[in-house]
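INFO batch 0412 | record 1 of 1 | parsing
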Amino acid sequence: MVSESRYRGGGVAIPCYFSAAKLKHEWMKKGFQQLFKASKTHRRNRRAKPYASQMASQNPNPPISEITPGLFIGDVGSSWNANGLRQHQIKSILSVNDEPTAMWRRASFTSIITQDRHLKMFCLDSSHQDLLVHMRRACEFIETSLAHGGVLVHCVQGVSRSTTFVIAYLMRRDRRGLDEVLADVKLKRKVRPSENFMTQLGLWGQMEYEIWEDEEKKVPKAPYAKLLKEKGLTAVLPPSAAEIAFGF
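INFO prediction complete | emitting tokens
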């Protein structure tokens, strides 16, 4: 069952003055809402591929674009297009989306992209999604993977989430500012990171590509801590068993 506990800070505060009857009513109501949400999620997952295809058809970009030698941004369809993966000599994929797909379990895919070369980050395209918490890992994955061949970073359309991680990587690699890197990426693909993700990219550069004060990653740097408090950002936890069954 889908639960708010999947998100950091997802607890529900119940005032102590609630009567037992009202408390029971509230929990029954919440249980029904969660059941309805779970049903919607299940239906969405069943039609994940048609939805992705519909979104791709509305995308002004080609399925895949080479941003720098060997580094590509693409839509979700490009991640399972065996011919395209071979053509561009892609050996590693970073998936940054919330639409599970069983296409990644097909032999035509696994024969090209092995499990250890496919990093999946379950991220929402929302105003509350924290991408900063994933940026270091994503950058390190891209950096090490480029030594083995082409790297594809994709979300659903290859416009916002995937672009954010590619920009974060290029900022860190070249020690360049956000505006300069974004301008270069736009020469290769029509991209548009969301306002939330642009804010996070700005902080990424401001904090010199590290969001933690300590090696244990328990104390966030002041700009990151301020953003978490003001925006209420949440990092999505690893996918459930049900999501894994669909490809995550």
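INFO post-check: The mean pLDDT is 80.
INFO record closed
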